[in-house]
Amino acid sequence: MARMVSARKPKNLLYTAKRLLSYMGRHRISLMLVAVMVIISVLCNLLGTYMISPVIDSLVSGGGHDDLVRGVLMTAVIYIIGVLAALGYSQIMAMSSQKIVYDIRKDLFNHMQTLPLSFFDSHQHGDVMSFYTNDVDTISDALNNSFAAVIKNGFQIIGTMTMLLVLNWRLSMIVAFSYAFMFLYVRYSAKHSKKYYKKYQDSLGALDGYVQEMVAGQKVIKVFNHEDENLRAFRERNSELQAMGTAAQSYASTMIPAVVSISFLTYTIVALCGGFMVLSGITSIGALASYLVFVRQAAAPINQFTQQSNFLLSSLAGAERIFEVIDKKGEIDEGCVTLRSADGGWAWQDGEKEIPLRGDVRFNDVVFSYEEGHPVLKGITLYAKPGQKIAFVGSTGAGKTTITNLINRFYDIDSGEILFDGIDVRRIRKADLRHSLGMVLQDTHLFSGTIRENIRYGRLDATDAEVEEAARIANADSFIRRLPSGYDTMVVSDGANLSSGQRQLLAIARAAVANPPVLILDEATSNIDTRTEDLIEKGMDRLMEGRTVFVIAHRLSTVRNADAIMVLENGIIIERGDHDDLMAQKGRYYDLYTGLFELS
Hints:
Elements: H1 13-25, H2 28-50, H3 52-60, H4 65-112, H5 117-121, H6 125-167, H7 169-194, H8 200-216, H9 218-223, H10 227-250, H11 255-279, H12 285-327, E1 338-342, E2 345-350, E3 353-356, E4 361-371, E5 374-384, E6 389-394, H13 400-407, E7 415-420, E8 423-424, H14 430-435, E9 437-440, E10 449-450, H15 451-456, H16 464-473, H17 477-482, E11 490-491, H18 500-514, E12 518-522, H19 530-544, E13 548-552, E14 564-569, E15 572-577, H20 579-585, H21 588-594
Parallel strand pairs: 6-13, 6-14, 9-12, 12-13
Antiparallel strand pairs: 1-2, 2-3, 4-5, 4-7, 7-8, 10-11, 14-15
Helix pairs in contact: 1-12, 2-4, 2-6, 3-4, 3-12, 4-6, 4-12, 6-7, 6-8, 6-12, 7-11, 7-12, 8-10, 11-12, 16-18, 20-21
């Protein structure tokens, strides 16, 4: 039986099947050729089996050696044509199936690039990867194993039943009754097995996500001796997956033995009845011999149908998961204002109107919530003039990072407005808005490739000289040149061959090469030791010169020179001013800076 990759019954089988057929329709010519060759193969198989009757009858009636040779050669030619047709359609189907899953993967990945961050926030990475592995693989397997098999089995059953009627309609009544009972049993088993085609793929995705998380966190796991607890959690998820798979297959696994047993019983009854008919002169020995072979062959396509029904259901469940992602709405981008170069700088193009890009950012009574009814920001009003450095401090969950995410339009606000150079950010095309912003995140992410390529990720057309200048600004140049291959050193496993501070320096260099007018530093120095922080302070000052900068930092010494410091608590700005003003107020910032109150 084909392996079960996805065992969740599709919620809308017809819709999912139509969507999958639409992908197959892109390769209709090759699939039509497969269908034609399958039919040829089936006809050759039926005709070859039928040839048993005239060959045997010829010998019984006194035919000579030449008749026997002629009949055997004709049968051999028929079977050779069938074999060649089978070889042809299997090869064409293999190529076509890979083209189809290529299209599905491409559409899935392309659409996933347009999905908002909320999608990735609500899905484990392992579950997302499951779309590309488990779900796509089960579609590929179904196309390879089931498309041609369904056509072949359908024509095989029709052709076999036709030949049975032609050879002996009386015996065919017995076969018809037997196979009607067989179909009823298959339908009964399928109906009950479908009840369990549920939650298997979700359990598999959850297990994949857990395994990925555990593999990524091996160092933390070993530090805290958490192996036994993780093993127990894995066993729970693995047991759930096992239970779902067992339940899904319990009824399905009885289909093949039942079909085989019924087919053997039918064969025995037909052989006995046929023998009496030969003795009575109602039929010939050759016709009975051919008929019995057809009876045995008739069970094979029914057996395969029972296998393919479960496998097709599994593949459609995987396809449904993929189509659910493809059908999700991408980021809405109603922006019409674009960014273009102008006089050595940048400008916003608003219809016929051109507005210089200066980096003036303003929040006017902004309210935002990740979940409806639970606001994270409550009436935030602030401004950052071009070239100003604005710092946000406050407890974890106060809303600091959320503010910077709203500038990028990773999320859209509930009410209020955010203005960029006097333009509502919702009117600016997202790609252009984000092109004008540079961001250094607390959690750095490096891609597989060289250090040079990772820095150039900030601006793909940057020259080698510009990449190295950006590294010097971030004070990363010295440590890079000390590496065995310098800028051509390969980064592996998200920078596992580099220290945390080095990864952070590369992230800062990546922002520097982008040369954005607005810079967002989200805990940008959190992974850098004090000595390294001192080394990059001047470089960061050069990077921030002439730019509007938003800084989020727990280390308050890094924001002393900010033009304005916003103290947030529970989504509200409770204090604002520069360092000296806030120290003079002796409020929350004073308590934080002097250690009377600690950030949580």
